[in-house]
Amino acid sequence: MPDSEISLYCNVNSESNRFYVPGELRRKIFDNLHNISHPGIRATKALIASRYYWPNQNKDITNWCRACIPCQKSKVHQYTKAPVSQFLPPDARFSHVHLDLIGPLPISGGFRYCLTMVDRFTRWPEAVPLLDAKAETVAIAFMFNWISRFGLPQKVTCDQGGQFESGLFQMLLVSSALELLLFTQVRMEWLNGCTDL
Ligand SMILES: [Zn+2]
Hints:
EC number: 2.7.7.49
CATH superfamily of the largest domain: Ribonuclease H-like superfamily/Ribonuclease H
Organism: Araneus ventricosus
Strand order of the largest sheet: 6-5-4-7-8
Oligomer: single chain
Helix content: 25-40%
CATH architecture of the largest domain: 2-Layer Sandwich
Radius of gyration: 23 Å
Bound molecules: zinc ion
Mean pLDDT: 78
InterPro entries: Integrase_cat-core (IPR001584), Integrase_H2C2 (IPR041588), Retrovirus_Pol_polyprotein (IPR050951), RNaseH-like_sf (IPR012337), RNaseH_sf (IPR036397)
Structural class: alpha/beta
Domain Integrase catalytic: 86-197
Number of strands: 8
Order of helices and strands: EEHHEHHEEEHEHE
Protein name: RNA-directed DNA polymerase
């Protein structure tokens, strides 16, 4: 580097020269680039490889991505399978809501996911765009777009797993709906293969 004793090494095998990153800085580079938007493993590899090089970088990046807590919280790697069960048709409007999460979709206006909410009695549908698929995001969207307008349902059905299994409850509890939840006996049912909506 000009005016410096420090030498920078580059890998010149690709179109653009990629800086060789010494061991102690590799994790820092990963954190800085990956933590911007927590893209998947493949996207993180491409992002880092476009600027930097170190031996076995793909292996390091894969391990770090898999260990990333925000990634683990927001991405579903394995769906829980619940047994097929029977339930009675609802007898009142907005007493039983079916939630579904669609995505990831191509980004539009910053939104990547879509939460659909359908009243099982009237079949009234609502759809809300979401920035991410975190449990908190889903819970907030459900609260502000459905509960605030139609009231707290007695029953909520989702056919997706862990995403909002615990998070939705936690968020609803945190937002002081605890008593309301207990009084109205809201409960989640995890049904797979419920396609009659
Ligand atoms: Zn991440």
